[in-house]
Amino acid sequence: xxxSLVGVRGELLTIEKEVSMDAREVRYAWMNGEFVPxxxxxxxxxxxxxxxxxxxxxxxxxxWNPSQGQLYLFKTGEHLARLYxxxxxxxxxxxxxxxxxxxxxxxxxDRNGYRxxxxxxxxxxxxxxxxxxxxxxxxxxxxVAVTAVPRQSRLGSGAGMNVCVSSWKRISDxxxxxxxxxxxxxxxxxxxxxxxxxxxxxxxxxxxxxGKVAExxxxxxxxxxxxxxxxxxVTGGILESITRTTIMELLEGKLSIPVVxxxxxxxxxxxxxxxxxxxTAMEIAPILSVDRYPVGVGELGEITRHLETLYExxxxxxxxxxxxxxxxxxx
Length: 331
Ligand code: PMP
Fold this sequence. Notes:
Distance between the termini: 38 Å
Bound molecules: 4'-deoxy-4'-aminopyridoxal-5'-phosphate
Oligomer: single chain
CATH topology of the largest domain: D-amino Acid Aminotransferase, Chain A, domain 2
Structural class: alpha+beta
Strand content: 25-35%
């Protein structure tokens, strides 16, 4: 049933009630050992993952290559390894192995008949249990699920973002570790993203507790100064991003651009030649201005443009150096 809402700029929106607009055509999800019809992949409202946001998850992209008739999952092993690290830090004990989940991801693509770009979301969650909150693994159900919905790549679209530095600070490792990819800590970035949207920006950058640049709500940040690419270190209040690693490899290996991981001041964003976000869902998103200061000349930069081309050929199976990072779905 469609629902009417008022958007952040007062516009009237109509959304479909079924979970997500892009999920309307999805046939199957996978939950705790079974492929189930999409509408049957449910948890109880009283589950810990609902009431406390205790679901660790991953976003993996699959890219369709029309000329090869092939769908490729990118860096699945790295994503599943990070999922199990998040689960370990949350004292979760999933009943399925990483290898089993990898097979599930591949079969889910086939069962849904995907021949387009897809976003896959494996999750390990706390379900129903007794004495919720200070639970030990034996006191609570730990579930595992994988969903996947079509999501077209925006690589090469030329779309850039005008962003602000948020007044919200990024959570730190000593408070609630950004290294744990758990739904609860996404509300930190969400506060920044919503505030930015209400203030008329396309996105936000969060500083860490010391006032240094951390990351965006769902992506890491790179800037270019004097021809050198710079990004905050993995100890700087960021998620250890898999795309960030790919970007560093492409910059150094294919574009001969040196990469430095170091603390970044807010004002360095204002004097950078180029800047962009990177992440699985956002891919590479050029930043055109920060706090209304144009980045460079306020247009898509050369290095960012080259990176987008290189990244797209890697993820679509057209760069031989990245074939080992791809899992083909169709034999
Ligand atoms: N930071 C945050 C907070 C994120 O949610 C994401 C998306 N997973 C990233 C960075 C980028 O990580 P990755 O490249 O592994 O998708």
